[in-house]
TrEMBL record, chain A:
Subcellular location field: Nucleus
Protein name stated in the entry: DNA topoisomerase 6 subunit A
Organism, scientific name: Rhynchospora pubera
PANTHER family (UniProt xref): DNA TOPOISOMERASE 6 SUBUNIT A (PTHR10848:SF4), MEIOTIC RECOMBINATION PROTEIN SPO11 (PTHR10848)
Residues binding Mg(2+): 264, 316
Family: Belongs to the TOP6A family.
From TrEMBL, chain B:
Nuclease recorded as keyword: no
InterPro entries reported in the protein's UniProt record: Apc4-like_WD40_dom, SKI8, WD40/YVTN_repeat-like_dom_sf, WD40_PAC1, WD40_repeat_CS, WD40_repeat_dom_sf, WD40_rpt
Residue ranges occupied by any Anaphase-promoting complex subunit 4-like WD40 domain in the UniProt entry: 158-207
Keyword terms, alphabetized: Repeat, WD repeat
Highest taxon above the source species: Eukaryota
Identification of the protein by name: WD repeat-containing protein 61
SUPFAM superfamilies given in the database record: WD40 repeat-like (SSF50978)
GO cellular component: Cdc73/Paf1 complex
WD repeats: 58-99, 157-198, 199-232, 241-282
Length: 435, 325
């Protein structure tokens, strides 16, 4: 009894909120949600509408010629990186070092010319629908106290990459860091210099044979060859296949899927994989478990380009979900120089959208209030070009900011754990409710 | 300024002690006495120097005492208990004077007499109002509704009304402040019984607040977010003091206005120097959550510096007494 009294003392408002019982309202909203189930048409109808979507997408994709920067008449020259094979990279490193040696011998010391990756040097190109780097660069001389450390690290990284390329092996970023911990100090330093080197040489980071560790997973109707091994993603269990970080080892993509479903969170991914969603509606399900990493973005672009499938995204209804979508679509600021290979334009926002919260009558206890930071992030997103181009997204973001409510994909679980796979997604696909 | 522990009385009650207040000198006693109320449903009176009982325990409260207040005359005290009743009784004879019923349960929490002793303000808990009772007739003089703070999106559960936890009177009797479970503090003008404004800053329950005895515009609040805020009661936050590692359950200002004492869930009592706005001392005499701290009112009136005394009570059933100098 004294425990109850203590609880009352600690939280006097608890019982009073229980007395204003929310139960009847919750059950009425869940009844409505279950009623939506009745609106579902048989699977065959949904599949046929999906087929029309994928046909439209592949037709659009093949009719579009790939535009490159040189085709556009840009006022300042832009820097782009391409995939080079290892010999070309080795040659360019050797050329760079030869010029360094020449400048030392002529008594002028040496300096590296590093392109700037700051936001002032980035430009969003609407025709290409991605961010590119302009040509501002800074010099990093050895003889200057403020840049001597960076210049040393750059030289060391160049020599390490050269060694790796000659042996035709791959290393991870951490591996590279550990070869000379005392010099690098912090892994962020060696990572930053690695990005600088790939900009300088004009090649992608994977052509330097430096790979990131695996983060994302894929499951669904896809068969591909990973370094010669045949992987069937329908048979990868619930966990799925880890997306290989080394995209050039991936070849021979084959699929009978109708679309690619991009999921933000691991929890939703597990739900879809366990319910074998991809067997009911043929698709490929992909997740980077949060912020997208380079390997997932490369893989997604590969899927889109080779299989010409539409990409639908399932993210949380908050500004960060849309930010993640933006990274897939237009690239991140860090890797903007490599945006040609990492971006996947034309991703459709399937859910969870702010309008869905009311449409599916998600109960109040699942709707979280947005903090000031969230609202600010949402307002910043409204300023972004890729959002402004899409009317529907602008409306949804404005609604989110106005109601100041956010919700996660898991909010739909309040109607039942399998609500996502049994009612929500099929209904969305049936109603062609993507933006 | 410093605190030095004089005495700690273990097992002064049979269960956790939740409320403590000093009783001003009266006709029955020439010195201040300490009144403590506990979960064991009794209220006990103690002498200031040696914590010896000054009167037998007074019963008649059910379910445990949440808050105590002593009438400025020193002869009466009011205690609110978990059963939502407020019992007013004579201190030395322990005879009940009045039993104040709220309209429904969970509508009485913290309480305080105004400096003149003419009104008793009771924080109305779930009724989202403050009830003002006349002390002569013990009739309800006024029910002052406490409006919701406007920025509801910050509060943890926007759909529940805020539970009013504590009330405090300014030393000149013109302002009344109340604090609630969602962290907002509301300030009222007492002459017109009118709501003036909210003071924002806390987003977690504010369980205790006190006006400075020397400056009627300065208000101190302690919150579950472990910070102590100092407000200008006319509208703004002046300073935020941190240092506690847990909920700040109780704040009290010293009679000379130079120091603040706080009791916290981290089992410590801290003394804060208001000139430096920092904690100068931490007392660790308690072994459990400190629920109440109270400075003895100065015999020569507020603003003077005589030997002060601080009492703290805790869940560990003990009362600690400190000399403040």
């Amino acid at each position: 009894m004294s425990d109850q009294k203590r609880r009352r003392k600690l939280d006097p408002s608890a019982s009073s909120s229980a007395s204003t019982s929310k139960k009847p309202r919750a059950s009425s909203s869940s009844n409505y949600a279950q009623d939506l189930r009745k609106q579902l048409k048989p699977d065959a109808d949904i599949l046929s509408s999906l087929r029309r979507l994928s046909a439209a997408t592949s037709a659009a994709a093949s009719s579009q010629k790939p535009v490159s920067i040189s085709d556009l008449d840009l006022s300042s020259s832009c820097r782009e990186v391409t995939d080079l094979d290892s010999f070309a990279v080795v040659h360019s490193i050797e050329r760079l070092i030869l010029s360094v040696a020449r400048s030392i011998l002529s008594g002028q010391g040496f300096s590296f010319d590093v392109p700037s990756r700051a936001s002032s040097n980035q430009l969003y190109v609407p025709e290409l629908d991605r961010i590119v780097l302009l040509d501002k660069s800074s010099s990093r001389p050895f003889a200057n106290l403020s840049t001597v450390r960076k210049a040393t690290i750059t030289a060391r990284v160049l020599s390490l990459i050269h060694a790796v390329l000659l042996r035709q092996i791959h290393v991870t970023k951490r591996d590279l860091f550990y070869t000379d911990v005392k010099l690098f100090g912090d892994q962020n330093q060696s990572d930053a210099v690695l990005d600088d080197v790939s900009c300088m040489l004009g090649c992608t980071r994977s052509s330097l044979h430096v790979v990131a560790s695996e983060k994302g997973v894929v499951v669904g109707r896809l068969v591909f060859l990973d370094d010669g091994d045949r992987i069937d993603c329908t048979r990868m269990g619930i966990g799925g296949k880890a997306i290989p970080p080394n995209i050039d080892r991936v070849s021979g993509l084959e699929s009978d899927a109708l679309f690619v479903l991009l999921v933000e969170k691991d929890a939703a991914f597990m739900r879809l994989a366990e319910d074998r969603f991809y067997n009911r509606f043929p698709c490929i399900i992909l997740t980077a478990k949060g912020q997208p990493d380079v390997a997932t973005r490369l893989f997604l672009r590969r899927l889109k380009v080779e299989l010409k499938l539409p990409v639908l995204a399932l993210v949380d209804s908050d500004p960060y979900g849309l930010k993640i979508l933006s990274v897939y679509m237009c690239g991140s600021k860090n890797m903007s120089y490599d945006s040609a290979n990492l971006t996947c334009p034309d991703i459709k926002w399937l859910g969870v959208r702010p309008s869905d919260l009311d449409k599916y009558r998600v109960p109040e206890q699942c709707r979280l209030p947005m903090t000031e930071q969230d609202v600010k992030a949402g307002k910043d997103l409204l300023e972004e070009d890729f959002v402004k181009r899409n009317e529907g997204w602008v409306k949804e973001l404005e609604m989110m900011i106005k109601t100041r409510q956010k919700a996660e994909i898991q909010a739909l679980s309040s109607f039942g754990f399998q609500y996502l796979t049994e009612v929500y997604l099929p209904l969305k696909l049936q109603q062609r409710d993507w933006l | 300024m410093k605190l030095s522990g004089i005495k700690s009385a273990e097992s002064s009650h049979d269960d956790s002690i939740w409320a403590a207040t000093w009783v001003p000198p009266s006709s029955a006693s020439s010195e201040c006495l300490l009144l403590t109320g506990s979960l064991d449903e009794s209220v006990r009176l103690w002498r200031a120097d040696d914590l010896s009982p000054a009167a037998p325990p007074s019963r008649g409260h059910s379910l445990g005492i949440v808050s105590l207040a002593a009438h400025p005359s020193g002869s009466l005290a009011a205690a609110s208990s978990l059963d939502s009743l407020v019992r007013v009784f004579h201190l030395h004879t322990s005879a009940s004077v009045a039993l104040l019923h709220p309209d429904s349960p969970s509508e009485a929490w913290g309480l305080n007499f105004n400096p003149k002793g003419s009104l008793l303000a009771v924080a109305g808990g779930a009724s989202a109002s403050i009830k003002l009772w006349e002390t002569t007739t013990w009739q309800l003089a006024e029910t002052v509704p406490v409006p919701h703070p406007t920025d509801r999106s910050q509060s943890p559960n926007p759909s529940s009304a805020s539970f009013i936890l504590a009330v405090a009177w300014s030393p000149d009797g013109r302002r009344l402040a109340c604090s609630s479970y969602d962290g907002s503090v509301a300030v009222f003008d007492t002459e017109r019984a009118k709501f003036l404004h909210h003071l924002s800053g806390h987003h977690m329950p504010v369980r205790s607040l006190v006006f400075s005895p020397v400056d009627p515009r300065v208000l101190f609040t302690g919150s579950d977010d472990s910070h102590v805020h100092m407000y200008d009661a006319e509208g703004s936050l002046v300073a935020a003091m941190s240092g506690h590692a847990g909920w700040v359950s109780s704040v009290d200002a010293s009679p000379d206005g130079a120091a603040l004492a706080t009791g916290s869930a981290d089992r410590t009592v801290r003394l804060w120097d208001l000139g430096m706005r920092a904690a100068v001392q931490t007392m660790t005499s308690h072994t459990d959550h400190v629920w109440g701290v109270a400075f003895r009112p100065s015999a020569s009136g507020p603003g003077t510096r005589d030997a002060g005394r601080l009492a703290s009570v805790s869940d560990d059933k003990s009362i600690s007494l400190y000399d403040y100098s």
